Amino acid sequence: MGFRLAAVFLGGVLGTSLRWGADLLFAGANESFPVSTLLVNVLGSFVLGLLTGSLWMRRDVPPWLRAGLGAGVLGSFTTFSALASALVVQTVSAHLVPAVTYLVASLALGLGAALVGLRLGLRSGRDAGRRNGVAE
């Protein structure tokens, strides 16, 4: 349990740093539309789908690695609270069209990215099994 907690902590530091970097990179664009939050959440959805389809399906992947990458890195990199906060700010500011656009884009792109990542991850797992002589 202690090793997993350390992996989540270190992964959280890495994910938060990456998130902060994305916010800095898109600082100007974020003033009118939460570009960095949208991009980060879509990328995180893709990576989590990819990991779920590949590494998470394997029994030889240690629990600390799953915890460190999943809850640690991706849990701190992506954020539902930033999505919700941006929607509230846009709605209260009477920017309803950008708010609805942001909500629809976040859901559609996030779900689509997770699905593509999952399919690629599952395919890579099957391909690795074939290369290693494991029957499907």
How would you characterize this protein structure?
The protein has helices at 2-25, 35-53, 63-77, 80-92, 96-131. With 136 residues, it is an all-alpha fold. It has one domain (2-131). Helix 4 (80-92) packs antiparallel against helix 5. The longest helix has 36 residues, at 96-131. The relative contact order is 0.17.
How are the secondary structure elements laid out?
Blueprint: H1 2-25, H2 35-53, H3 63-77, H4 80-92, H5 96-131
Give structural attributes.
single chain, 136 residues, mainly alpha, 5 helices, 79% helix, 0% strand
Q: Overall 3D geometry?
A: globular
Helix content: over 70%
Estimated structural class? mainly alpha
Are there runs of 5+ residues with pLDDT below 50, and where? none
Tell me what portion of residues adopts beta-strand conformation.
under 5%
Number of distinct helices: 5
N- and C-termini, Cα separation: 33 Å
What is the overall pLDDT average?
Answer: 89
Return Rg in Å.
17 Å
Strands, count: 0
**Strand/helix succession:** HHHHH
Main beta-sheet strand count, sense and barrel state: none
Number of domains: 1
Short structural summary:
79% of the residues lie in helices and 0% in strands. The chain is an all-alpha fold and 136 residues long.
